[in-house]
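Data card: per-record layout.
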Amino acid sequence: MIATLSIFRTSPPFDLSSTLALWDTTGTGHPVLKFRGKPKRRDDPTVEAWLKSVKEGCIARRVPKSYRPDIAKHFMSKKARSRVLDVEKVMRAVRGESWKWRWKDFKAAVRNMGWNIADTETRVVSVERQPSSGFWRLGRNGQVHTSHISPPTASK
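The structure for this 156-residue chain is written out next.
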């Protein structure tokens, strides 16, 4: 009977703020560098190395997997964190307000974020619709592509 009751026992809640406070002051074991998302800088770690150091630090401090994305966001620069928060905002709009990062999804998102792409670089794209036809003209850098869009058929 005691063994069956232990199934319903809950673990004490995890205190994220105290863990982060202790992590910042005790930087000798498993230090995590601030991730800036600038791969050309020598002092900025690669995405893989940074994610590995976050994971090792979380394991050493017994941080549950559900809190690892929050720990990782703490060790990001303002600009890098804003990019992750933009993805989070979109995911909450698509999946619902109760959506939260999982460590696996967070790692995939950070790896595929395209940190070597300049966020200020833009390209001009023109889109024109031909009147009364299902054709669209898409142009980029002087090239024009024409695609045909068939109108939806009415079902009876």
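Known properties of this structure: The mean pLDDT is 77. Strands lie at 125-129, 135-140, 143-148.

See the next section for split statistics.
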